Every structure is written in structure tokens, then in C-alpha cells.
Amino acid sequence: MSQVVQQKIANIALMVKHYDEAIAFYTQKLQFTLVEDIPLDDDNRWVQISPPHANGTYLLLVRADTDEKRRAIGNQTGGAVFLILHTNDFWRDYHNMKEQGVTFDEVPREEPYGTVVVFQDLYGNKWDLLQPK
Into how many domains does the chain fold? Predict the structure, then answer.
């Protein structure tokens, strides 16, 4: 009898310059929740954040402590959209983010899959804010 494989993506690593500035951006400007902030040693922490009412996939903030990691800050996907943030109310979140000073690369648009706009996090990583149809 074979066992059913159960897997999920639990964390997506996000390179940051400083833990506290990244936590502030995500929790204040995007209204994310700080899930865990556990000291590991003098320089490193286990920091997980997520959108409100997320499904258990968290962003793991990783302090860039090498030149190679520092080069990835703000460009983790070579300029493509890095992450897609689904919402149940596009215009509420879009206006809240604009009021908080979040940078948008375009005006919102309607696509066959939903209402979408590209925005940047504090380091320049590109995200989609998307309300699926």
C-alpha cells in the first residue's frame, strides 16, 4: 500500500537589507502579519510574514549577509514579477497601498484573469496585486 504524498510550499525566501525595515514595510504598508520573529544568533533571525488570512505559505525574510545575496535584493527574478498577491477587494487594497506610499509601475488594468496592477516592495521587487475573476 503506497502512502499519499503530502507537500506544500511553506516559505518563500525574500532577501532583505535589514529585518526591521522589511517588517515595517510589509506590516504597515501592505498590512501583512508578523508570524514569527525568532533570534537565531547575533546577526540572524527567523522572520516569517504573511498576508492576512493567508493559507500557510509565508515569506521568510533573509538578511543578505554576502555580496551575492546583496546583489539579489530587489531583483530576485531578474526584473520579472516576483510574487502575486491575491485580494478579494482590489480597489480597497490598491487605494490603501497608494495612501501608504507604495510605488506602482502602471495604472490598474483589466485582464482576462482579473484586475491587476504591478507594484514594488521597498527594495524594488515587482509584485502583482490581483483580484482574480
Answer: 1
Per DSSP, the residues of 9-78 read --EEEEEES-HHHHHHIIIIIS--EEEEEEE-SSS-EEEEEE-TT--S-EEEEEE--SHHHHHHTT-TTT
Q: The whole model's pTM is what? A: 0.92
What are 33's three cell numbers? 502579519
Residue 4 lies in a domain: no
Q: How many CB atoms lie within 10 A of CB 12?
A: 12
The b/e string for 41-54 (b: 16+ C-beta within 10 A; e otherwise) is eeeebebbbbbeee
Distance (Å, rounded) from C-alpha 80 to C-alpha 125?
Answer: 8
Residue span of the structural domain in which 102 resides = 11-132
If DSSP codes are grouped into helix, strand and coil, which group holds residue 123?
Answer: coil
d(CA 38, CA 55): 21
State the pLDDT confidence band at 54, using cuts at 50, 70 and 90: confident
**What's 25's domain CATH number?**
3.10.180.10
Q: Is residue 3 part of a domain?
A: no
